C-alpha cells in the first residue's frame, strides 16, 4: 500500500489533492474523497461529487479538461463526502448556458437526505466526534440537492459512444451505486472500495451490510475491470490485482459473518463472540484490509446487531441500576479511591490500559473524592490508547473522551 492510500493522510482541504489522468478520457480527482470524471464526445459524466467545499475544485478540474457540458452526475452513495459537492457543478452549467446535469442515484438516497434533515443536530453531534471537528466549525451540511432520477436495482444509459451501467449494492450504506463502463473496462465503485477494513459497525451509525458488501465486490470482480476507481485512495489497475483485492475483502467479510452466525447458533452471547472471533494473519497483513478507518471488531458488532437483540445474556443487565449507584456501592466497599487509582496506574504500566480505564471509571462514576485525579488519569490513558490506535474512528473517539474530560475539569 502506498503512502497516499492511507485515509488518515488524505488531504481534506479543497486546495490539496491531485488529478489523475487515465486512458480513454477517464480522470480521477483524488482529494480526501475521489471524484471520477468521464469524458465522452457528447459531454461529461461525474461519478461522486465530494464534500460541499470540494465543488469549486471539481468544476476547475473539469474545465481544465473540457468545455463540454456535465450531462450526468451519479451519487455513489448518500454520504456527505460523496453527494454534497454538486452545487458548484450546477452553477457552472447555468453560467455556461448548458442544460443542468441529470443527477442519478439509488432510490434510497432521498430517504437518507430526509433522515439527515430530521436528525440534523444528532448528525452534527456524532460526526463532530467521529471526524474530530472543532466546536466552532459546522459538523454537517444543512441543505441537500436531491437526485432528479432514481433507480431500484440497475439502470444503464449511453452518452456519445459510451455505455454507463449503474448497479445497486449495499455496503457502507443501503443506497450504494457502482458504475461499470464496459468500453473502457473501468469500474467506479465509491466506498465499496476504500483501502481500509470496511467501515461496517461504525460505533455511531445505522446498520451496514457485510454479506451484501462482499457480494457487491464479487460482482465487480466478475466484470474483470482493468481500472478500479475507489471512493478514497489510489486507483487499482490490472485485472489480476483488482480481482485479488475484491476477493480478499469479500472473503474477509464472509469469514466474519460465518463466525458470528456459527457462534450464535452455538448459543454464545455477545461478549464471548466479541472476545472469541478470529481475524487470521492473511487479513491482518493484507494492504486491502488495514484497520485505518473501519475495524474487524466493529464489523462483528454490526453482524451481532443484525441478528441479535440488545440483551447480553446476563439477567442482571436486563434493567440495570445506574452506573453511578453500582460504582458507589463498590467504592463504598473498597473505601479508598487512592488504592483504585494506584491499581489503575499499575495496570497501565503493565500495558493493560483498557483494564485500567474500567478500574478508574469506578472512582469517576461514584463521584468519590479524588474524582478529578481519576479524570486526569483517564485522560492520560485515553491519550495513550489514541496514540497506539490505527483506526481513525476509534482514535477520534478516544480523543473525544479526552476533550470531554478537559471540559468537565474546566467547568469546576
Ligand atoms: Zn467516503
Characterization of the model:
The protein contains 15 helices and 13 strands. The chain folds into two domains: 251 residues, Metallo-beta-lactamase, Chain A, CATH 3.60.15.30; 91 residues, Alkyl sulfatase, dimerisation domain (Serine Threonine Protein Phosphatase 5, Tetratricopeptide repeat), CATH 1.25.40.880. It is an alpha/beta fold. Helices cover 45% and strands 16% of the residues. Helix 1 crosses helix 3, helix 7 packs across helix 10 and helix 12 runs parallel beside helix 14. It has a seven-stranded mixed β-sheet with strand order 1-2-3-4-5-6-7, with helices on one face. The structure holds zinc ion. The site of zinc ion has 7 residues, from helix 2.
Produce a short descriptive summary:
The protein is an alpha/beta fold. The protein has helices at residues 55-65, 80-83, 87-96, 108-118, 120-130, 210-222, 239-265, 270-276, 281-284, 296-307, 323-334, 337-349, 353-366, 371-388, 392-411, and strands at 18-21, 26-30, 34-40, 43-47, 70-74, 102-106, 149-151, 154-159, 162-169, 176-181, 186-190, 227-230, 236-237.
